[in-house]
Design brief:
three-stranded antiparallel beta sheet, alpha/beta, seven-stranded mixed beta sheet
Length: 370
Amino acid sequence: MNVPFGDLRRQVLSIRDEVDEAIGKVLDKAWFVFGENVEAFEQEFSGYCGVKFGVGVGSGTEAIHLALLACGVQPGDEVITVANTAVPTISAISFANAVPVFVDIDPDSYTMDPSKIEEKITEKTKVILPVHLYGQSADMAPILDIAEQHGLKVVEDACQAHGAEYKGQKVGSFGDIGCFSFYPSKNLGAYGDGGMVVTNSETTAVQLKMLRNYGQKKRYYHTTKGFNSRLDEMQAAILKVKLNYLNKWNERRRRIAALYEERITCGPIVKPREMAYAKHMYHLYVIRTPRRDRLQKHLREQGIGTLIHYPVPVHLQVAYQDLGVKEGALPVTETAAKEILSLPMFPELTDEEVGYICEAINSFIPARAA
């Protein structure tokens, strides 16, 4: 049996007729930018998150970039975040000409360790940017408390956490701004790039709408220096269809995670932990073992696709050596990067395929003595 790491085609086929109809309506109207689908999806998705306003943008990276600018970040300001994330999180900080300041992660959740934040705060700090990684929320209560005590803004990177919850409330709704990506492989993915910024501040929403559209509130009248970062009508129409299925797909992800939890029985494999405060939506199912590379090779030989999210922490990437953060500065992050492995996780994965993956993992352990 061959099991791919992901298979978007299965999902496309399952909703093809509805998507074709939605695309057809956009083509019939021939209105492709800032139309009724974008406006409707902004309302529907922000409502889904429990937030008043949504602003569609070009990508998750741009969502974070524009969110930082809307929070008043200026060149040289510092943004506290984690190195255990996709590089685009940090790219967005760079786009804002700000400086990322890294804190280590909690070893169980792989998200920001709140106890490490205050020691990194300086007079240049403007924003705390927690990442809800793999589909699980960061521990928001202490993060919000620290931000309030120091007069800092909080921008949530929820690009991997559509529908995830913290203490019964959806992520993206806690900070000043929440940021989402609709990259095709996300729990809610477009058929191209796309993103969304959500906020409860009408003033911030208006500012974000100007920033995404060349700084203009009225056409050809520019009140600020802006960018071109727009969610288009076609993607919004597709996402409107898919949003109706998000809860169903998320619950299927949780069911697959439960099967992994039950059927992976070998002791040396550390399985992901759903934190007591969280409802994990398993954008990724990430296991851990010191023998990661050998296990990945073993699974590849069994026809099972895996990936590593992420093999090199951002502070050790060549592109970010100018930050001067040396190896050893973030020990929990660095150790995790050497041991983590992402197993296949998508809603259309069958129970049979999950069982095959678990058997392959369990069969790897006897080979340890060889």
